[in-house]
Write a structure and sequence with these properties.
It is built from 14 helices and 21 strands. By secondary structure, the chain is α/β, with parallel strands linked by helices. An eight-stranded parallel β-sheet has the order 12-11-10-6-3-2-14-13. Bound molecules: alpha-D-glucopyranose.
Length: 553
């Protein structure tokens, strides 16, 4: 039995233990009725989030954007896209959240801008070698006429990372780099002008009162000198690169940027925080993002991507506490977000599910819904008992599965287009969430429009239906969040218990936590009093794919 201390957190550092709810604005609530969610929609539904019991929200991008990658292609970092409302709507939302004791984190997308950003438009008009081009990564092509891209890097969304432009005089010209879509040119972060611009962007939102930033692609901003060729070991490693040293992921230079930002945030009162989105293959590497003078949190993706196997889950929890503990940081647990298959479906998949590979009508091996939901509820029951911070993704509190039958003509993820339909992409986890079973668009708006079609059977998952059912996933989340607060489980130490190979079992103070991943029921003995169960069961034997919190008499 080992005891793992997860730092005794100074009370003011709220991000060490906070439960943060991700809002994907286009799919949360749509006040304007145009079929795409917006900021007034968020404001209108804040009461339900307060009632759920979360500490903070993170909003995916709502800044001015042509929406080529659902807002992760920003054209103006200091304004709200009209699709989502106005800066005044943002201020109203922020004040309304703060009035309810909910902190607000916004998404910052610094690796690349939209190709419609004024800087990129200026770069296209300027000459090779000009200061305008130097804000992005422009290079001459190889070959006699520069017709071969400068290197062989593959885009995360499929295809190459380089696009050739036509120079202002009409001749075929230089190439520019984009790790993602061609509409998302990468900035050159070795350029001081870029750095200064983003300090300004940080200050713009900090001055408005945000509590922090989720930093998009926080491992990609610096590229290796000379941009050497690189071939990933497999397509599934497109976001992390396995164990290799990848010339565009996790380069040492990114850490200087975060040290700089750390100082900017520290100028402000109120404990502002940075959370990195860094897809790194190991926990050791991941923990580098949260050294004391860098970011405050970074998503624990190795945990998220661990399959439903007791030994593996125990292992990743143990290693996480150890590696993050070494740098004095909390682990930031997460099971779902807008880039991966929802965990109510993913945990019932047998094969690997790399980022970007959604499930579609033609996929083989669809996950079983009941198995997925049981596992998801058990996994969340474990996660919310772990020391550290946790992120929830909108809709998971309803037990929403991945939408697997979206007709092709509605698909919007660039991955779908860039791979000519080979990969379904991420639309299946982005469908607008259901609020009321009998309302138009399930209460997402009043017009019935929805940018992605909502599955017919989703009335079962509507919030009002789950509200009325004490056995629902929604009530499970509320109970877990309430009890987590009551027992102060966000901080402190974890002691492993040995309940056999197929169990995940540990103690948090007086609270015992167990999940049974084996085929047989797991008997706990008759001296237990249950605090809560992932799904109701009688007696003291935990059924397969169930979890519980309990005390011992
Ligand atoms: C991050 C975002 C993802 C986006 C990509 C490019 O991974 O989470 O949604 O497509 O960055 O910005």
């Amino acid at each position: 039995m080992t005891e793992l201390e997860q730092f005794a957190a100074p009370g003011s550092e709220w991000w060490r233990s906070a439960v943060i709810y991700q809002i994907y604005p286009r799919s949360f609530a749509d006040a304007s009725g145009d079929g795409i969610g917006d900021l007034p929609g968020v404001t209108s539904r804040l009461d339900s989030l307060q009632d759920l019991g979360i500490d903070a929200i993170w909003l995916s991008p709502f800044m001015t954007s042509p929406q080529k990658d659902a807002g992760y292609d920003v054209a103006d970092y200091r304004d709200v896209d009209p699709l989502f409302g106005t800066l005044a709507d943002f201020d109203t939302m922020l004040a309304a959240a703060h009035a309810r004791g909910i902190r607000v984190i916004v998404d910052l997308v610094p690796n690349h801008s939209s190709d419609q950003h004024v800087w990129f438009q200026q770069a296209l008009k300027a000459a090779p070698g000009s200061p305008e081009r130097a804000r992005y990564i422009f290079r001459d092509g190889k070959g006699e006429n520069g017709e071969i891209p400068p290197n062989n890097w593959e885009s995360v969304f499929g295809g190459g990372q380089w696009t050739r432009i036509t120079e202002p005089d009409g001749t075929p010209g230089q190439w520019y780099l984009h790790i993602f879509d061609p509409s998302q040119p990468d900035f050159d972060w070795t350029n001081e002008e870029v750095r200064e611009e983003f300090r300004g962007v940080l200050r713009f939102w900090l001055d408005r009162g945000v509590d922090g930033f989720r930093v998009d692609v926080a491992h990609g901003m610096i590229k290796a000198d000379g941009l050497p060729d690189y071939t990933p070991p497999s397509e599934s490693d497109s976001m992390g690169g396995g164990e290799d040293d990848v010339p565009y992921w996790g380069q040492e230079g990114v850490h200087d940027i975060y040290r700089d930002w750390h100082k900017v945030l520290a100028e402000y009162d109120g404990d502002r925080a940075l959370c990195g989105e860094a897809w790194l293959p190991t926990l050791k590497k991941t923990a580098l993002w949260v050294r004391p003078d860098e970011m405050h949190q970074t998503f624990n993706f190795p945990y998220m991507m661990t399959e439903w196997d007791a030994e593996k889950v125990r292992g990743v929890i143990r290693d996480s506490l150890e590696e993050f503990g070494k740098v004095g940081a909390p682990s930031t647990w997460v099971l779902s977000n807008h880039d991966v298959i929802r965990h109510a479906s993913r945990l019932a998949l047998t094969a690997d599910s790399p980022q970007g590979d959604g499930i579609g009508p033609k996929s083989a091996g669809k996950p079983d819904e009941a198995t997925g939901l049981a596992r998801a509820r058990a996994a969340t029951t474990i996660m919310l008992a772990l020391p550290g911070s946790s992120y929830l993704y909108q809709g998971e509190e309803l037990g929403l599965p991945e939408a697997m039958e979206i007709p092709d003509e509605f698909r919007q993820d660039p991955t779908w287009f860039r791979t000519n339909g080979e990969r379904y992409g991420r639309d299946g986890c982005r469908v607008p969430i259901p609020w009321e079973a009998d309302a138009a668009a399930y209460g997402f708006n009043t017009t019935g429009d929805s940018w992605l079609p909502q599955p017919e059977e989703w009335s079962r998952f509507a919030r009002d239906v789950e509200e009325a059912d004490p056995a629902s996933t929604l009530h499970m989340y509320k109970t877990l969040l309430g009890m987590r607060r009551e027992f102060e489980l966000g901080n402190g130490s974890l002691v492993w218990e040995d309940l056999g190979e197929s169990a995940i079992a540990f103690r948090r103070g007086d609270v015992y936590v167990v999940a049974n991943l084996g085929a047989e029921p797991l008997e706990l003995g008759d001296d237990v009093t249950f605090i809560t169960q992932s799904q109701r069961f009688d007696g003291t034997a935990v059924p397969t794919d169930h979890a519980a919190w309990y005390t011992k008499n």
